[in-house]
Amino acid sequence: MPRPLPRNAIRALRVSATATAAGLLALGTPAPGQAAEAAPSLEFTHGLGDKPVEAKPYGTYSGPVHVHARNTGSQELKDFTVTIDATALKGQMKLSASPACVEKQQLLFTCDGEKLNEGRPLAPGGLLRAPGVDVMSLADARPGFTGEVRVFGEAGGVLLGETTFKAAVADMGPLIDRDDSSDTRTKPGATLRPAIGFTHFSPRPLKGVHIGIRLSQGLSYAEEFSNCEYGDRDDYGVGARCYVETPVEPGGSYDLDRLSLKVGDTALHESWHLHVNETAEGYEYLKLTDVHRGTGRKLRLVPRAAGPGVLDEEDSSEASDRVTVANAMDYEAVGATVHGKAGQVVKAELGIRNNGPATIRNWMGEPGDGATSSIAVVIPPGTTAVKAPDGCTPVGASGARRYTCSQDLEDSYFEAKELTPFVFELRIDTPGDLAPGSIKASRPYEDDDVRNNTAAITVTFDGKPAGTAEGSTAGSGPGALLRYAAAAGVALAASATLFAVVRRRKAH
């Protein structure tokens, strides 16, 4: 059994322990109840998880990866850096970052931490909105390639924290990268031969591609290929759907062989659009009717040895062109002269005629979307419009003197020699006040003869009261007789006035 320590030894041990505790406190060891200071650190997040950001082969970047970092230490961070190491993407992608970041070597960026934090140290618990990182695949990138980007913070050579995310060259399939057409100007009867090609940005080989082509009404196919089906697209023009059965290799570039289009005699403002797809899905947008198969040679793909071309930053899913044709058009307003009796309702058959030779579009886009012309009708004084045609809206309250009218909402094109009628029913109220009204048509873009853009609306009367108004039965009795007498008096007062009766010009 051990012998107990003497009292003086126990006292000495207690003094020594007290001194040791005091020394530890002096060195910074927290006393009971006091939290230890957390070491400097950054907790990085980016929100992508294991999903890679897709780098696309366009002329713009695919969109930033937002990397954030929170100061989880107990002291503010000064003089620290954030490094973006994307060297694993070399030869496949390029990268951009915040202006606070400098590319020290290819794909290795160093960012000033305080500049990222608007020039201030990062307080404990503060969130650093670290650099937005953009990636874009290079022209010769390997579709399907995936690489890792490392983002980390340092202060005085000490690692504060890090994160990684993946970047992959996107599987985009066939994308148009050759289209030499740009706002073509031509004349009726010309042949267009657009040079169109694509690159298959995918690691998957294809047995062939599906091609959809749609033309506006003034264009047609100079030849019809036997591996294509052709049809009408209502009044939008014509369309074709083709399948070119040719092996398409990953990353391979191909051009269409000798596609040619014909410019028609009625063409003016035209357009064409061509899509290349892996599958036939999406053909429904063509909405073809009266479909037939071509009987000519086959449409072919020609491998392009030069490799990928230039991709459109806005849309590489299609090739297209606006075609302006040096053709004439004449927009004519058609007036009317009608006659009747006081109180009678008469029909003024007005209209707008396209004298050609060009067919013109009624609308900028879909029917009803931005009219290409304006039509204004002024009701003749002395009459009231009791019924206006569809497409005409009064300017002002009921019984308005002015109307604005539009072309047919169901019709995209105004054909050469076509007439759009506007029939107004006018009641002759005050024969003595009769004066011509007008219909005026204007196109802000072109019209080869503006002299016929305005036509008169003339109403004459025969000096006799109306026995029966059109569409109703005239009243009888003393009240009606007084009205007849008043109308006859007005008619006599105006009997010296002579009006010509001109028949309305009919549509050709």
Percent range for helical residues? under 10%
Biggest β-sheet description: 7 strands, mixed
* Overall average residue pLDDT: 82
- Whole-angstrom Rg: 41 Å
Distance between the terminal alpha carbons, to the nearest Å?
133 Å
Q: Number of helical runs?
A: 3
Q: Ranges with pLDDT <50 over ≥5 residues?
A: 1-5, 9-29, 465-508
Describe this structure in words.
By secondary structure, the protein is mainly beta. 8% of the residues lie in helices and 40% in strands. The protein has three helices and 38 strands. A hairpin with a 7-residue loop joins strand 33 and strand 34 (402-405). The longest helix has 20 residues, at 7-26. The protein is elongated and about 105 Å long. Mean pLDDT is 82; it is low at 1-5, 9-29 and 465-508.
Layout of strands and helices, then pairs:
Layout: H1 7-26, E1 42-45, E2 53-55, E3 65-66, E4 68-71, E5 81-85, E6 93-96, E7 101-105, E8 108-112, H2 113-116, E9 127-128, E10 132-137, E11 146-155, E12 158-169, E13 173-179, E14 184-186, E15 191-192, E16 196-201, E17 209-215, E18 219-221, E19 228-232, E20 238-244, E21 253-256, E22 261-263, E23 269-277, E24 289-293, E25 301-303, E26 318-325, E27 331-334, E28 336-342, E29 345-354, E30 360-361, E31 374-378, E32 383-387, E33 392-394, E34 402-405, E35 413-414, E36 419-428, E37 437-442, E38 454-465, H3 478-493
Parallel strand pairs: 2-12, 14-26, 28-38
Antiparallel strand pairs: 1-4, 3-10, 4-9, 5-8, 5-11, 6-10, 7-8, 11-12, 13-16, 15-22, 16-21, 17-20, 17-23, 18-22, 19-20, 19-24, 21-25, 23-26, 27-29, 29-36, 30-35, 31-34, 31-37, 32-36, 33-34, 37-38
